[in-house]
Amino acid sequence: MIKKTELILAGSTKAQMIDAIASAVDKKELPAMEPGAMCYMLSKQGYLSDRDGHWHPHLMFFVSQSDPASWGAGLPGSPIFVFNDTWEHLTTFLVPVREWSDGTADH
Q1: Would you list the DSSP string of 6-32?
Q2: Structural domain of residue 6, as residue ranges?
Q3: What is the count of structural domains for the chain?
């Protein structure tokens, strides 16, 4: 994430950033994701992406490239969403939760 931010702040386009990250991962210049890597996305001001905008409060779990179905993610009826970024060898699981960081319910 830090490398992506550095590239974008340096003026790289999204395509250039993707190419640089994929190349760095392939050359093992960036380490594999550590087991247990996660983040909390519980702020009402959070922004998921240009496509999705603001989303529900959620936890994100990061693992080195993995089959999402083996974790139950993205299957019919599963509450677990997934981004499977093959270019950076990273699978990100999103688990929605019921409350925002201020304790109010997500509607």
Answers
A1: HHHHTT--HHHHHHHHHHHHHTT-SPP
A2: 1-31
A3: 2
The closest alpha carbon to 60, from 46, 50, 70, belongs to: 46
Integer-rounded Cα radius of gyration of the chain: 15
Helix (H, G, I), strand (E, B) or coil at 3: helix
pLDDT digits (tens, 9 = 90+) for 37-72: 899 999 988 877 788 778 899 999 988 878 888 888
Q: Is residue 45 domain-shared with residue 16, that is, in the same domain?
A: no
Single-letter amino acid code for the residue at 74: G
pTM of the model: 0.72
Asked if pLDDT for residue 36 goes beyond 90, the answer is no
